Recover the amino acids of this structure.
């Protein structure tokens, strides 16, 4: 059987299970935004961490050491995110939310799921569209609220502390309510779809494992094998922007819509 035939067979079986799902969780990582032109983190040679040292950029210590350098790096990245648009993978997941009871649990900070029309989205690692002061006493700012320059981080209008992106850096705990709800949904869902994640960053990476251990069917979508491919009931090997629309079309066909 060719690779394409294997994918079609697995995709049909996965769609049949999805079409009769009671409660679905979709767990996404940077790969789901790759076809929107946003770099992933760990792909050999092209990922963000293949070009930059995360410990020099994505930690509170790095920000304290050189706030202007880290701020400028994030302003460059967020500029690319602002130019990006949802791709067919994001739109397929928004369509799936209209077919089954579904929550997206994302590690991504780009907000593309929401821009594609998904409503129930849990952001485990924060957002590129939200800022807070380093003391975390004042949060929920937009960039316009703090009128930052690309060169130097602005100061909090309420307390004068440095402003920082409201994203989760290495060594920082995830937003407790978001992680708690994500793990609760994972332990109660009957199907979990993992899309575009290497599955190496904890504690977020526990979400698919929690679902699998609770007996949920696991569908893994990735062009390359990842941490979930072996434990998955169906490993759908391909880019999310191609596999997800086909998967949702199959579910619609089985649902007669
Ligand atoms: C924590 C910031 C408690 C936001 C990120 C030492 C000290 C402290 C902690 C640790 C430590 N050692 C280990 C840890 C835990 C650490 C961790 O897990 N490290 C890993 C790397 C080993 N975790 C933490 O620090 C977390 N906090 O543990 O706090 C604590 C506190 C103190 C002390 C101990 C513990 C915080 C983790 C969050 C870090 N923040 N980014 C930003 O700037 O963006 S990391 C980054 O990784 C992003 O958040 C990203 O979302 C996340 C996961 O990456 P992926 O999304 O999976 O992306 P990746 O590139 O890896 O994979 C992409 C996949 O897509 C690939 O498989 C590829 O094949 C696939 N793909 C490619 N094209 C497509 C595709 N898929 C589909 N379609 C395509 N077209």
């Amino acid at each position: 059987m060719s690779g394409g035939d294997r994918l079609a067979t697995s995709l049909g079986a996965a769609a049949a299970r999805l079409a009769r799902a009671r409660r679905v969780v979709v767990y996404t990582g940077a790969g789901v935004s790759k076809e929107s032109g946003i770099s992933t983190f760990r792909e050999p040679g092209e990922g963000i961490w293949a070009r930059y040292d995360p410990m020099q950029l994505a930690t509170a210590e790095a920000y304290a050491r050189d706030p202007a350098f880290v701020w400028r790096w994030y302003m460059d990245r967020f500029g690319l995110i602002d130019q990006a648009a949802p791709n067919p993978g994001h739109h397929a997941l928004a369509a799936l939310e209209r077919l089954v009871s579904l929550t997206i649990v994302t590690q991504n900070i780009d907000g593309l799921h929401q821009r594609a029309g998904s409503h129930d989205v849990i952001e485990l690692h924060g957002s590129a569209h939200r800022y807070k002061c380093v003391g975390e006493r004042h949060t929920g700012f937009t960039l316009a609220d703090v009128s930052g320059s690309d060169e130097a981080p602005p100061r909090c209008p309420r307390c004068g502390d440095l402003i920082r992106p409201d994203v989760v850096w290495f060594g920082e705990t995830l937003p407790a309510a978001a992680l708690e709800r994500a793990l609760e949904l994972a332990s109660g869902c009957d199907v979990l779809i993992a899309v575009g994640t290497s599955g190496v960053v904890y504690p977020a990476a526990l979400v698919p494992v929690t679902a699998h251990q609770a007996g949920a069917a696991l569908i893994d979508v990735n062009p390359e094998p990842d941490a979930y491919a072996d434990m998955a009931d169906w490993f759908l090997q391909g880019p999310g922007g191609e596999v997800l629309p086909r998967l949702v079309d199959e579910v619609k066909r089985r649902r007669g819509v």
In short: The mean pLDDT is 95. The first strand starts at residue 24 and ends at 28. The pocket of BV8 is lined by residues 29-32, 34-35, 40-43, 47, 58, 107-109, 125, 167-173, 195-198, 200-203, 222-224, 226, 239-241 (CB under 6 Å). The domain at 39-83+129-167 is CATH 3.30.1600.10 (SIR2/SIRT2 'Small Domain').
